[in-house]
Structures are given as C-alpha cells and as structure tokens.
Amino acid sequence: FFMFLAGHETSSSTSTFALFCLAKEPEIQEKLRNEIIDVLKKHNGKFTYDALMEMEYLDKVVRETFRMYPVVPVIPRRCTKDYKINNTNILIEKGTKIYIPVIGIHLDPEFYPDPLRFNPENFSVENRSKRPEVAWMPFGEGPRLCIGMRLGYLQIKVPLVTLLLKYKFTLNKAMQPPYISEAGTVVYMFKQP
C-alpha cells in the first residue's frame, strides 16, 4: 500500500509534465503516437506488458521527462563513514548530511547539450554511452535506489499510451511561462493559476 501512496504524486506529476512537453513539441508527440500504433499492430491491437516494453521511444520520452522535471530535485543522504574524495584533500566525515542536486546534474550541459530543450534522443543508446550512469538519477542510485521505480514507470507509461491513442494534446493559448512552481517546494509541480 505504501508504494502506491508514495508513488501517487510523483507518477501523476511526471505524467502531467510528459503531456506538457508533448503538447509543446507536436512532432515528438506524433512520433511517439506512431510508435505506439505500430507496436500495438504487431501485438494484434492488444496493449500488453510485452508491447509496452517494445516502445523504445516511449521510454526515451519518459526518461527525458524525468531528466527535465525530476519529481524530487534534491536527494538527501547522510554519510555513513568517513570518506575522502579521490584526488582531493576533502574529507566528508561520518554523519555529515549530503544533498545530491539531481536537477543540477540533469540540467548540466556537460552531460546534456542544450539542457533546457526537451529532447528524447538524449536517451539514445549512443548518447547514454557518452555520460556516466549517475548523470541521470531521478530515482536515486545504488543500494538506496527507489524501490518503486518499476511500478512508477508503469504508472506513467500506461496512462500515456492510453491517452495518446485517443487524444492529441496542445497547449492552451492563455498559458504563459513560467509554468513551473518556484524553488522551495519538495516536489516539482505546475503553478496554480
């Protein structure tokens, strides 16, 4: 039960951000819709787990959404033992609080050229191989990786496929930037009108 409760806000926010990005980028939206239709044709029109796993562009779109809008922009940790950072004189003492700036890493142009542009090709096999794995960590990393990651992916991908099969998404002409709430919130969310 806890995983469903903990994943509700994060999954719904990420789905909303994905649809927002797709509405801003109609060519990407159409490419994704075409992939969904093509994959489902191969599966006799049945939306199964296997069909979902074949949707490679969908995976890129979701990963890019997590990159641009990590639901948890900072991950707090506590150092469990003294640690000296390689090739420096910096010692992080046991018990020190550490804050991993996920949003800063995800928007670093060293890892993602043109980081403010929604570009699912950031997650092509070729582009992923050019950067360290920890340059993308919306679920954390290592032994403390979010236990609900796989469930979260399903909670985002299934509604996206369902909605994109039935609807085309566009931005409301009255919507004005900035679209995202100010810093200081625990999770990223859209501004309230």
UniProtKB/TrEMBL annotation:
* Keywords in alphabetical order: Endoplasmic reticulum, Heme, Iron, Membrane, Metal-binding, Microsome, Monooxygenase, Oxidoreductase
Q: What is its main location?
A: endoplasmic reticulum
Any idea which positions bind heme? 146
Location within or outside the cell: Endoplasmic reticulum membrane; Microsome membrane
Q: What PROSITE patterns does this protein's entry cite?
A: CYTOCHROME_P450
- Identify the InterPro entries for this entry: Cyt_P450, Cyt_P450_CS, Cyt_P450_E_grp-I, Cyt_P450_sf, Insect_CytP450_Detox
Membrane topology for this entry? Peripheral membrane protein
Extract the GO molecular function terms from the UniProt entry: heme binding; iron ion binding; monooxygenase activity; oxidoreductase activity, acting on paired donors, with incorporation or reduction of molecular oxygen
Known cofactor(s)? heme
Q: What GO CC annotations are associated with the protein?
A: endoplasmic reticulum membrane
| Listed name of the protein | Cytochrome P450
The protein's organism comes out as Dendroctonus armandi
